[in-house]
Design a protein that fits this description.
alpha+beta; Immunoglobulin-like; eight-stranded mixed β-sheet; 4 helices
Length: about 300
């Protein structure tokens, strides 16, 4: 019974973990006394909705477009130093385009797709604004003004724009690029990691010291476990003693040899040295012969009583 229950629990876990995030669609928005301001009871909001009124300077709608914009933390991963982002950072449309934006918030928090700088006579406070708590989807429509202009699009929730959730929308050719658009333009205020570098340098120095201390301790422990042989130490002492004795003998004999070789040529000195060597060898040979005779005489000696 317990085994059956465990298998059922595991199956439920696998099914729930593998299931895609369900996006709630907010498509039953209500007007609260103003056609451009739509809301529902689940927190969906559209501000600046405009489906029919042409902005001044537009004789007609140039084209009708729809875009889907995703928002969430995962889209910031390609922009180091950010926390939130849209999946698209730059848009471009013709002047007088009727644009429908489908905004999908994939996070479990609130996000916005807010556009600034629109004509205030048509868009209250000059904004077009989609807002929803995710995971959810909400849609809204506006008609873009004429002329070449670049508009800021961002999330106005505290610190969301500062952490990367912003883009630019160019109407026509636009009138330049906005600063600090992730992946499009450089940050107006560059990130400063100098303090982090100093901390990392200090950590590296401390790590080096710790490694040296550990290495010294390991060497000391190894020396205790494997001491140097005493014989080798004695041999080195004897060698040094023999060297000293040889130097003393050389210093004593040097004046005597200098007197002996005085006035002799190089060939005479060499001949004399070879003569000394020959005499020394003859002396050694005579000693060896005497030693052999003594040994032989001991072996052939007759024992008493024979």
């Amino acid at each position: 019974m317990f085994r059956l229950f465990s298998m059922a629990a595991l199956w439920v876990f696998l099914v729930s973990s593998g299931k895609a995030v369900e996006i709630q669609e907010h498509n039953s928005l209500m007007s609260h006394g103003h056609e451009s301001h739509l809301m529902d009871m689940d927190g969906g909001m559209v501000m600046g909705q405009n489906t029919a009124t042409l902005p001044g300077g537009c004789d007609r709608i140039s084209e009708t477009k729809e875009i889907t914009v995703h928002a969430g933390h995962k889209y910031s991963e390609k922009f180091p130093g950010t926390m939130f982002a849209f999946d698209t950072q730059e848009f471009n449309f013709k002047p007088c385009t009727k644009l429908t934006v489908h905004f999908i918030n994939e996070d479990n928090i609130r996000h916005q797709w807010m556009m600034h700088g629109l004509p205030k006579y048509l868009y209250p406070q000059g904004m077009f604004h989609l807002e929803i708590t995710g995971p959810a989807k909400i849609s809204g429509t506006l008609i873009l003004p004429p002329g070449d202009k670049t508009y800021l699009v961002h999330c106005d929730i505290a610190q969301h724009m500062e952490k990367g959730m912003k883009a630019q929308l160019k109407v026509g050719k636009g009138d330049g690029d906005l600063p600090s658009i992730p992946g499009v333009t450089a940050n107006a205020i560059a990130d400063d990691y100098s303090s982090v570098k100093s901390v990392l340098a200090a950590n590296d120095a401390a790590a080096s010291v710790a490694q040296k201390v550990a290495a010294d301790k390991a060497a000391a422990a190894a020396k205790k476990l494997n001491p140097e042989p005493a014989a080798e130490s004695q041999g080195s002492n004897l060698l040094s003693g023999g060297t000293v004795i040889g130097l003393v003998i050389g210093l004593i004999l040097a004046p005597l040899l200098a007197r002996k070789f005085k006035g002799m040529s190089a060939s005479e000195i060499i001949a004399y040295i070879f003569e000394l060597l020959r005499a020394g060898l003859d002396f050694l040979m005579s000693l060896v012969k005497k030693l052999i005779k003594l040994i032989s005489a001991g072996k052939t000696k007759t024992l008493p009583g024979n």
